[in-house]
Amino acid sequence: MTPDRSSLGLAGALLAAWRENGAARLNWLIVGGFVAIGLVTSLWQVRALSSASALAIFGGAWIVARSIDWAARRASLLARLVPFALGLPFCSIFWAAVAPPQTQSDAVAGSTSCRAPATVGALAALPTSILMAPIDMGSDIEAICSYCSTHFVYTSNLSGPCSPAECELRDLA
Question: For 98-111, what is each residue's pLDDT tens digit?
Answer without folding.
Answer: 777 766 565 566 56
